[in-house]
């Protein structure tokens, strides 16, 4: 319904572009680190309709002209009221829509489902000779923001002073494009029309408007679908100037260019963030792999140390038992001999174990240093770190630094473990020192005591070593990562950034597809 003034050739592409732009804008809103510069401006440009402001004095035929321009035919409902006197003192805006009407102060917005309103809005102003002061200001506000001004004259009368004062202001002050409509040509003679055209050109020349665009129209002939109404020439001008296929395509391509610039900007931002986080991730994964290997290595080595300590300790306890049993057999100074033997046992065991542990620590640190070098030569580590010398050197320095701290801590911690362990070495059964205690009972008591001692030793070693290894893991994580949890949280953003990058790249491909479609459609 209605006669289109703007090309609908790229309606599908326009709809796709608008949907994509809204989705892209929402994505930026949800990710504040992305740049939104110009997007709101592009959205506004996209949604801004091409507007015509129609100006003319009362009875100049503005309403009839507009109804006819939009394709309203005889018997159909008019959009703009037509009557003998002024029909409204308000600004009337007509847009494409579902038939509702909105009134706000001095403005009325009418929505009509007409093809001729696709992509445009028409603004009808009160008559120039009846505008009140506030209407004059509102009218001029619209004039300043118009794309095309249509000044409507009655073909018989173009001489009103207020009309030409406004035209001069539009041309000189606002520097807007104006076309002149000599309406109701069916009511004027050819002589009157020629005189009006001549006078209009003369007056335009006086205000430095050369070659004015003048159209002779008859709304009556157009509405009655009769020939020579002059409206086809007006529509052709509008279409060629602002609504042609080519101009519509250029507008969409300009918008595509601006969106693409923003998409490329944000794609670069995401590339930088992804590259940065991938470096952190490689560091994090490599270091975690190292710490995991460390933990396994220490577990194995400490299991070996624990076994050596327990075997040695069991052998020494067995020797102690044999000595004690021998004292009972001889019945000589049993109490004194047992106390002395236990005291010597503690000294020897403590010294021997400390010597052994010292050697073990040296062995562990030597193995650890060699293991670190082998770790960095592993294919999976080399592949993960890639060719980035900075990342490899940073990780190596961090590990070497931590190794020195680890070596000192290891010796201190094992000595603490041994101190806590040997506090349990005591034969608490006083009956062991009683000379009259029968030998078989003593042996049973000794075997129980040895069993208790070994369980206590094993439990103490196990809990202390586990505590040490866990604290070592946490300490190394904290030392190397500074803030381990924050580091993990930052790396967890990587997948989000990769997903964003994929979506941004998808928008870039959509823009290419839409632009390709624009270019492939022939006129």
Automatic annotation (TrEMBL):
Entry's Gene Ontology molecular function annotations: GTP binding
InterPro entries: GTP-bd, P-loop_NTPase, TRAFAC_Dynamin-like_GTPase
Cited Gene3D superfamilies: P-loop containing nucleotide triphosphate hydrolases (3.40.50.300)
Pfam families xref list: MMR_HSR1 (PF01926)
Residue ranges of domain G in the record: 52-182
Protein name: G domain-containing protein
């Amino acid at each position: 319904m209605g006669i289109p003034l703007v090309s609908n050739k790229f309606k599908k592409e326009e709809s796709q572009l608008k949907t994509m732009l809204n989705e892209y804008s929402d994505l930026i809103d949800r990710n504040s680190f992305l740049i939104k510069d110009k997007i709101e401006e592009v959205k506004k440009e996209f949604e801004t309709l091409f507007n015509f402001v129609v100006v003319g004095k009362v009875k100049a035929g503005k309403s009839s002209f507009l109804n006819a321009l939009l394709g309203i035919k005889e018997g159909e409902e008019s959009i703009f009221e037509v009557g003998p006197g002024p029909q409204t003192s308000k600004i009337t805006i007509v847009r494409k829509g579902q038939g509702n009407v909105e009134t706000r102060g001095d403005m009325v917005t009418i929505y009509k489902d007409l093809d001729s309103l696709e992509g445009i809005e028409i603004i009808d102003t009160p008559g120039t000779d009846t505008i009140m002061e506030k209407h004059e200001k509102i009218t001029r506000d619209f004039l300043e923001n118009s794309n095309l001004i249509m000044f409507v004259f009655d073909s018989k009368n173009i001489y009103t002073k207020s009309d030409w004062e406004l035209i001069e202001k539009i041309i000189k002050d606002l520097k807007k494009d104006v076309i002149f409509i000599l309406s109701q040509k069916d009511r004027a003679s050819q002589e009157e029309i020629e005189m009006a055209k001549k006078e209009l050109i003369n007056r335009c020349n006086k205000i430095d408007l050369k070659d004015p665009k003048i159209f002779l129209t008859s709304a009556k002939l157009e509405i009655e679908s009769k020939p020579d109404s002059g409206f086809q020439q007006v529509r052709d001008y509008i279409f060629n100037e602002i609504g042609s296929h080519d101009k519509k395509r250029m507008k969409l391509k300009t918008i595509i260019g601006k969106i693409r610039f923003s998409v490329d900007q944000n794609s670069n931002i995401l590339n930088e963030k992804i590259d940065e986080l991938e470096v952190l991730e490689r560091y994090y994964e490599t270091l975690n792999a190292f710490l995991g290997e460390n933990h396994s290595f220490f577990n194995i080595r400490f299991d070996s140390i624990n076994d050596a300590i327990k075997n040695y300790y069991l052998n020494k306890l067995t020797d102690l038992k044999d000595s004690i049993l021998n004292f009972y057999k001889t019945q000589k100074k049993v109490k004194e001999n047992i106390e002395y033997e236990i005291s010597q046992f503690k000294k020897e065991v403590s010294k021997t174990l400390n010597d052994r542990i010292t050697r073990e620590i040296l062995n562990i640190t030597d193995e650890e240093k060699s293991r670190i070098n082998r770790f960095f030569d592993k294919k999976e580590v080399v592949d993960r770190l890639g060719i980035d010398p900075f990342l490899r050197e940073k990780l190596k320095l961090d590990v070497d630094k931590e190794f020195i701290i680890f070596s000192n801590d290891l010796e201190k911690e094992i000595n603490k473990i041994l101190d806590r362990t040997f506090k349990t070495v005591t034969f608490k059964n006083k009956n062991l020192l009683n000379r009259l205690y029968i030998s078989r009972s003593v042996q049973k008591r000794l075997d129980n005591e040895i069993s208790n001692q070994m369980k206590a030793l094993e439990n103490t070693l196990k809990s202390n070593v586990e505590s040490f290894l866990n604290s070592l893991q946490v300490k190394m994580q904290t030392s190397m990562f500074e803030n381990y949890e924050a580091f993990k949280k930052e790396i967890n953003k990587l997948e989000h950034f990769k997903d964003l990058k994929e979506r941004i790249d998808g928008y870039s491909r959509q823009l290419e597809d839409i632009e390709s479609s624009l270019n492939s459609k022939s006129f």
